[in-house]
Design a protein that fits this description.
By secondary structure, this protein is α+β, with helices and mostly antiparallel strands. Helices cover 32% and strands 18% of the residues. The protein has seven helices and eleven strands. Strand 7 and strand 8 form a beta hairpin. The termini are far apart.
């Protein structure tokens, strides 16, 4: 069996081009065992924007003059990943899904690309635990490091935000990544294997501000009172209990972090998360000071 599991989550993110999605997870034991036979999804996120917006569109929207050409290079990188993984997977590759992305201009595309590329990196980091073959470790690391460069470039030179959020990237689980990705997936061919994922109920943290109380609500009649919001940034989550329908956003998180509602105040995994995932962005400048809107 071919093991490309570390490249698994990125397709679910709806990010750059194509990555491997785990095909099977053992539901009978509540484990996260992933079969090495994987399917391939192709996503035209970058290509779609490049086809929609010209060089003049980018410049007139106040993006750097060189940004569109760099996005073209990113699209080429993603195609190289597609080609590599297609050859590795062979007949196990799935057909392309359809995606709908809510960008309406080059600047809104760049803003969405910052979020998606960041989630893409977190997806790869979270998938690292599923590597079962040392033969694929180098390939996986080569793809991940390139994705991280993409994410840093989009956040920094293009959007003039912090290019990283701390010393460690944030790993995300399979269900967490799919929850974020599913909002962009409009449909997949019926011939594709069923993904071993379940999106969480949606979570909302209204007007989140550092050190301030924010109202927490969740869909599907999920009770928030008494549960905990885990703010995940880097390798160590911060847990804050929901009291009176509100949560105090930790004043210490900076850059991009993810928030989920969880029944536990000691661990975050797919078995304890009851709603999510919220992407929180608190940009900071080169001096490490929060940039206030």
């Amino acid at each position: 069996m071919k093991s490309a599991s570390v490249i698994a989550y990125a397709t679910l993110v709806g990010a750059a081009a194509a990555f491997v999605v785990p095909q099977a997870r053992e539901s009978s034991t509540n484990s996260t065992t992933i079969d090495d036979t994987s399917l391939l999804n192709y996503n035209a996120f970058y290509a779609g924007a490049l086809n929609s917006f010209t060089q003049d569109d980018f410049v007139n929207d106040s993006l750097p003059t060189w940004s569109r050409a760099r996005f073209e290079q990113i699209a080429e990188h993603q195609q190289a990943h597609v080609d590599l993984l297609s050859n590795a997977i062979g007949s196990g590759a799935a057909q392309a899904c359809n995606y709908t992305f809510p960008y309406t201009s080059p600047s809104t595309f760049a803003a969405l690309a910052e979020v998606i590329s960041g989630v893409c990196v977190s997806a790869f980091v979270g998938a690292a635990q599923y590597i079962t073959s040392s033969d694929y470790l180098t390939t996986a690391a080569a793809v991940l490091s390139t994705e991280a460069r993409h994410a840093a470039w989009i956040a920094g030179p293009v959007n003039h935000q912090n290019a990283w959020s701390g010393a460690f990237d944030t790993p995300l689980s399979l269900d967490a990544v799919y929850t974020l990705a599913s909002q962009y997936i409009s449909g997949c061919p019926s011939s594709n294997p069923t993904l071993p994922v379940t999106p969480f109920s949606s979570l909302n943290i209204a007007n989140a501000s550092l050190g301030q109380a924010s109202t927490v609500t969740a869909a599907d009649n999920v009770t928030v009172e008494g549960q905990f919001v885990a703010f995940i940034s880097g390798l160590t989550p911060t847990f804050v209990q929901v009291v009176g329908g509100q949560v105090i956003v930790p004043a210490t998180i900076m850059g991009t972090s993810y928030a989920v509602l969880t029944s536990s105040n000691t661990s975050v995994d797919d078995s304890t998360i009851t709603a999510g995932v919220v992407v929180l962005q608190f940009p900071y400048n080169s001096n490490g000071a929060l940039e206030l809107a």
